[in-house]
Amino acid sequence: MKASTLSELRTTFGDRLQENVPLSGYTSARIGGPADVLIFVRSADELAQAARTLWEKDVPFILLGGGSNVLVSDKGLRGAVIINRARLVRFNSQSESPTLQAESGATLNDIAQRAARLGLCGLEWASTVPGSLGGAVYGNAGAYDGDTAGSLASVRLLHRKNGEQTWPVDKLEYGYRTSIFKRTHPPAVILSAQMILSKGDRQEIRSKMEKYTTLRRSSQPAGASMGSMFKNPPGEFAGRLIEAAGLKGKRIGNASISTQHANFFINDHATKAADVHKLIKLAQKTVLEQFDIKLELEVELIGEW
């Protein structure tokens, strides 16, 4: 980044800007080298302002909320990273068809818990999913027969060329753990989203959420990870294939394939992204050789590889 550009960013963002910061502190896997610049935003307006400023100065950037479903290179990232802390949530609970409007930095668990307290159902699945609403919209996050595509009404975004827009859910071209955002990377940032809810019994909602939490704890490992590493192939489970290939518990450096669920790769201590990347390549190569199935990443690789 040019010194003159960096100076202008310092003036614009003040104490909301940090320099040469390891991204390991901002990802769920606790992995990642330094970014040239971090910019912290705490509202959708601040997010829009940051994006406009970086676009105007031709500074490349990415957006991180909860930092799950990403693996950041040990070399870090050139340009800027916007750390999204825009978390305002508003409920329209009195309508016959209740909805909520939430900024993209709001966490899925917080949204689901607040809905449950109001006796609003439809987001029970989201209580077990780590990460932010923006990330869920981007990647069509889901669990336990629910997903973002089935819960979303519309998204408010800022497009680099076309300004602020509202896109209905149909325009997002959702598929299994993918969307138009993830496939084509349009020059846009997700500001907020409207979710569809329905009225229900508080105890029943709470019981379902507790059931999902228990299932998650019994089937998925604790510890620092990126979430599910690979998408499930049609009619199969990535974890089963990796385990059947004899890779459950496989370790490279301080990175390991979980002994509890083989589709989770764990940072045991100060793991290097390069070692996780080697495990990814090993799992893909071995499963392809043994089962003629190509494992497709659910996690996104960020930075230089």
Question: Can you describe what's shown?
Answer:
The protein is 31% helix and 27% strand. With 305 residues, it is an alpha+beta fold. It has 3 domains: 3-84, Uridine Diphospho-n-acetylenolpyruvylglucosamine Reductase, domain 2 (2-Layer Sandwich), CATH 3.30.43; 89-218, Uridine Diphospho-n-acetylenolpyruvylglucosamine Reductase, domain 3 (2-Layer Sandwich), CATH 3.30.465; 221-302, UDP-N-acetylenolpyruvoylglucosamine reductase, C-terminal domain (Uridine Diphospho-n-acetylenolpyruvylglucosamine Reductase, domain 1). 43% of the residues are buried. The model has no long low-confidence stretch (mean pLDDT 96). It is globular, with a radius of gyration of 20 Å.
Mean pLDDT: 96
By CATH, the topology of the largest domain is Uridine Diphospho-n-acetylenolpyruvylglucosamine Reductase, domain 3
CATH architecture classification of the largest domain: 2-Layer Sandwich
How many domains, as an integer? 3
Low-confidence stretches: none
In short:
It is built from 9 helices and 19 strands. With 305 residues, it is an alpha+beta fold.
Brief descriptors of the model:
alpha+beta; Uridine Diphospho-n-acetylenolpyruvylglucosamine Reductase, domain 2; Uridine Diphospho-n-acetylenolpyruvylglucosamine Reductase, domain 3; Uridine Diphospho-n-acetylenolpyruvylglucosamine Reductase, domain 1; five-stranded antiparallel beta sheet; four-stranded mixed beta sheet; globular
